Structure formats: C-alpha cells, structure tokens
Amino acid sequence: MHVTHLSLADFRSYARAEVPLDPGVTAFVGANGQGKTNLVEAVGYLATLGSHRVASDAPLVRTGADRAVIRAAVTQGERSQLVELELNPGRANRARVNRSSQVRPRDVLGIVRTVLFAPEDLTLVKGDPGERRRFLDELITARAPRMAGVRSDYERVLKQRNTLLKSAAMARRHGGRGMDLSTLDVWDQHLARAGAELLAQRLDLVHTLQPLADKAYEQLAPGGGPILLEYRPSAPGAGQTREELYEQLIDALAEARKQEIERGVTLVGPHRDELLLRLGELPAKGYASHGESWSYALALRLASYDLLRSEGNEPVLVLDDVFAELDARRRERLAELVADGEQVLVTAAVDDDVPDVLKGTRYAVAGGTVERV
Ligand SMILES: Nc1ncnc2c1ncn2[C@@H]1O[C@H](COP(=O)(O)OP(=O)(O)O)[C@@H](O)[C@H]1O
Ligand SMILES: [Mg+2]
Question: How far does residue 346's CA lie from ligand 1's centre (Å)?
C-alpha cells in the first residue's frame, strides 16, 4: 500500500499541512527542528495508534489547540481509502474511514501499514524489555490487526487481576483471613487465554523473523554477526500451540500464586517475558558497541519490512534521520536494499546524506511549510 495524500491539522508544529505523496521514494529535507519527523510520525500513528517518540498523545497536539487530526488517502492495489484520526488527549480518540460514520480507532489498523526506523530505535537494543515486547506486539498487530483486540483484552485482565492481588496483599498485611481466592482462578483463566494467544503469535514471529534479521545484519555489517533472537518466557515450558501455552501459563500462575499474593502483582505472563538479542555469543545489551547496536536495531526493522512485504500488502518504509548515522558504504547498502519499495519516506537534514539511488521526490521542510522542490 502507499499513502497518496497526508493532511494534518494541529498536529505537532503544524497548524495545517497538505502533502501529496507519490509511490517510490520521497525525501523530506530540512534543518533540525523544522518538522520533518513530525510528518512521518503522523503516518506511523495511523499504523500503530501511537507515536514512536512519546507514550501519550498530549505532545502530538499543537500547543494551544485542543485536538489534532491526521488524515490520509491510502491506495492498496485497486482500492483507495480515506482514514482519519482525531486525537483528543484525556478523552477518547475518534476515527473515521471513507468519511462515513465513526468507527473505533482500532478498526483503522491494517489500512496504513508502516515499518519505521528512527534514532529512538537504539532503545530496542539498549533499553528495557518493554521496548522489545512493544516491538514484537506492534509487528504482530501489523500482521494481524485483530491482535489489537487480544492485546487490549490482555492489558485489561492484567490490570484487574493486579487490583485483586493488591487487595489480597493488603488484607494479608492487616492480619485478615484473606479473601475468597476462587475469583482469582477465574482471572487466571482469562489471563492465560489472552496471554496464550499473544504468546503463540510472539513465538511464531520470533521464529519467522530470526533468519530475516540475521540476513539483514549480514548485509549491513558483513561478517559482524550472527545475530540470534531468543524468546524467554516468564512461564517456563516448550509449548507452541495456544492450548499448550494456555496450560503452561495456568501451571506457572499456580506456582507463582503465593508469591503474587505476597507482592500484590502478576509475576507471570507475556508482560514479563523478555526477547534476548544476541550478537555472536554475547547479549547485545550491555556488550554491543554503539555502531553494532545501531545496525542491530536497523536489521530488526529491515527484517520486519521483509516479513510484511512477503506476506502481501506492502508497508510504507519510513527512514527517519538514518543516513547521517551511517558511513558511505553502509548508506549505499541500505539504499540498495530498500530502493524498490512501494513507498519509502526518508527524512534528512542534508540533501547530500540521501544516497543517489534514493533520488525520488524531494520536499523542503522549513518553518512549518512543506514544499516540493
Ligand atoms: N505539540 C507541539 N506543538 C507545537 N510545536 C511542537 C509540538 N511538538 C513538537 N513541536 C515542535 O516541532 C519541532 C520538532 O519537529 P521535528 O519534526 O521533530 O523536527 P525535525 O525536522 O528535526 O525532524 C520542534 O521545534 C518542536 O518545538
Ligand atoms: Mg527529526
């Protein structure tokens, strides 16, 4: 798919922006702080319902405005669609498809698909396990938009179960006889059901991504690998199917229950799992150099791109401020890898940083305006 037009209203630094887009490569060039990333961040938001830079919506709304609107015309094969999201920080966001009546924001997932690489992705390698879980879960949702529902079910059940555990922990501390724990059994089942579904998808994804990521790393940094993705579940076991994983989670929850009631928090489940990234024999986190970590993160994104492309409905590839970080050889390599993408959006501070094979449409971004050059 590709975006043929992007419209913004009160999004970040833009009071308004109208940006027609072609398939192929488009580069947004301009000095720092001029609003290049803001544009691609908006495209990414349509694909994930979140920003790659901030965890909440408030910073996305232009200072002084009370809502932001992101609208995109999207073409996939013969089909064209218009998606629109209204961001209302502190209140429910609203969504529309083809100007018709409202749909839930999560119903627009799958219309715009992106793989976005940005300097912030270094945290994929260097950051907390939560960053890697989010990476997996966003990719899972891009592969199967219905997983957004499973993810939010899981989050909801987890929250309610934690509330229950917290009050059990309180009751214990205050010398009470404790509470009726049969309720907890029911929540265990809910948690294990959504958890097993998420887990099955994550395991399948890691398995599928492994060879692609290793190949991408080899292309970016020949001889520097191999890289190995190792999923470490908090519920031990070798389960693969949803049924096996369900049992595995139920068993681990039973095992952990005493400790959970002491601590008042859920200790087992996909929210506690880790994706270990190895480079050669060593974990990348804590061992890999800056350059290696950077190539690693980029390899994970390129592998994601490869995967989504191979499964039909090609995503938009976004490379935010990537080329300045690479030496000339790696720049050329990366450019060759992505030059034939259906749509590639690139941002760069300096025109010369964008390799020649990616000479497509150019926009100059300065002082809140986006102009074709
Ligand atoms: N909510 C907001 N309201 C107004 N301006 C904003 C908002 N969020 C970010 N900005 C401004 O946007 C600019 C950064 O834009 P960005 O797209 O990140 O720049 P770059 O061109 O370097 O990628 C900064 O000047 C920042 O002050
Ligand atoms: Mg930027």
Answer: 17
Query: By C-alpha distance, which of 97, 85, 21 is closest to 51?
Result: 85
Are residues 172 and 274 located together in one domain of the fold? yes
State pTM to two decimals.
Answer: 0.94
145 and 86 co-located in one domain: no
Domain extent, residue 320, equals: 1-113+314-373
Q: Which helix (H) or strand (E) holds 79?
A: strand 79-87
Q: How does DSSP classify residue 9?
A: E
> In this model, does residue 175 exceed pLDDT 90?
no
What residues contact 241, with CB distance under 8 A and at least 6 apart? 200
- Are 263 and 321 within one domain? no
- Work out the angle at residue 24's Cα, subtended by the Cα atoms of residues 21 and 27, and round it to the nearest 5 degrees: 65
Report the separation in Å between the CA atom of 16 and the middle of ligand 2, taken as the mean of its atom positions. Answer: 18
| Ligand 1 first shell, C-beta below 6 A | 12-13, 30, 32-38, 59, 61-63, 347
What is the distance in A from the centroid of ligand 1 to the CA of 92?
24
Sort strands 14-20 and 2-11 into parallel, antiparallel or unpaired: antiparallel
Both 188 and 293 in one domain: the answer is: yes
- List pLDDT tens digits, range 23-80: 999 999 999 999 999 999 999 999 999 999 999 999 999 999 999 999 999 999 999 9
Tell me which residue has tokens 């073409």: 75
Supply 343's token pair.
């749509």
Residue 171 and residue 142 in one domain:
yes
Whether residue 188 sits in one domain with residue 150: yes
Contacts of 140 (CB under 8 A, 6+ apart): 147, 198, 201, 202, 205
Q: Are residues 251 and 215 in the same domain?
A: yes
Residues 369 and 225 in one domain: no
Residue with tokens 């009751």: 171
Give the pLDDT score at 177. Answer: 62
Task: Please work out, in degrees rounded to the nearest 5, the angle formed at the alpha carbon of residue 149 by the alpha carbons of 146 and 151.
Answer: 110
CATH classification of the domain holding 86:
3.40.50.300
> How many structural domains is the chain composed of?
2
Question: Residue 138 has which token pair?
Answer: 């966003």
What string of H, E and C letters represents the secondary structure of 173-229?
HCCCCCCCCHHHHHHHHHHHHHHHHHHHHHHHHHHHHHHHHHHHHHHHCCCCCCEEE
Q: Which residues contact 222 (CB under 8 A, 6 or more apart)?
A: none
Question: 229: which strand partners?
Answer: 277
